[in-house]
Amino acid sequence: MQKNKKKDRIGYLYILPWIVGFLVFQLYPILASLYYSFSEYSLIGEAEFVGFKNYIQIFTEDRDFKNSLIVTFKYVIYSLPLKLMFALFIAMLLNMKLKGINIFRTIYYIPSIFGGSVAISIIWRFLFSHEGLINQLLAYINVEPIAWIGNPNLALYNIGLLTVWQFGSSMVIFLAGLKNIPEIYYEAAKIDGASKIKMFFHITIPSLSPIIFFNIIMQMINSFQEFTSAFVITKGGPMKSTYLYGMFLYDNAFKYFKMGYASALSWVLFVIILVFTGLLFKKSSMWVHYGDGGDM
Predict the structure, then answer these.
(1) 43-80 pLDDT tens trace
(2) CA–CA separation, 281 and 277 (whole Å)
(3) Are the C-beta atoms of 77 and 216 separated by less than 8 Å?
(4) Total Cβ atoms within 10 A of residue 14
(5) CATH topology for 64-284?
(6) How far from chain centre, in Å, is Cα 204?
(7) I want to staple 147 with a disulfide (CB 3.0 to 4.6 A). Which of 50, 151, 157, 227 is the partner?
């Protein structure tokens, strides 16, 4: 009995750093932000409890809230499907049995490592500036320079392309899923005379549906929280056409020092993500198929 207690103490000692980290850097900030969302707080002085005032102002008075939410939804709807389709396409290419394929897999994963950094966003801005490399290349074929960043109708799609370029993490997960599909399925389909397109839609997609579902959830959450690309490349412009929710939240917290209001905004975003995640889980039984026949 004493020996078991000693082992328990040692076990708790090993997980103590994680427990402290969770309590200090995760649980406390979450609870603190919930409290601050019901108060007026500017990082200076004491927080003043104001009840639901922040939430009422968000939904009834703040025009930037509505605009940033619309821009963010456009961004998610545009970038999420493209990113996942491109990731699946590359994963299928890298699943081929070719010489030196591991080198290509590493090369294609690199954008995912650097894609979300400030440095890459700055490079992206220079590439698509009025006199950037992209317009210089277009000039060689006598195409007039395009305002990739300065045009309100194009700017959001431009920063969305950077997100699509960060397909590495989704691609690796898709690749792992492709390798787990039994080859016998494809062999049986070939014997039945099925084309590659039919095999893709009737074997590959159903077999990958749990992984597609996982990638949709993870990338949707990331897309709703996007901040770096819009902040570095466009500063939310032109005409707030790229003013994502993450930028709106950041401005209120660190530009206007309305920390209580920003905390309320963060909880609104949390509820939005929670609702969409819940809807995806609810509808997943209609198209997600598991090998053991289990349901969600």
Answers:
(1) 888 889 999 999 999 999 999 999 999 999 999 999 99
(2) 6
(3) no
(4) 9
(5) MetI-like fold (1.10.3720)
(6) 24
(7) 151
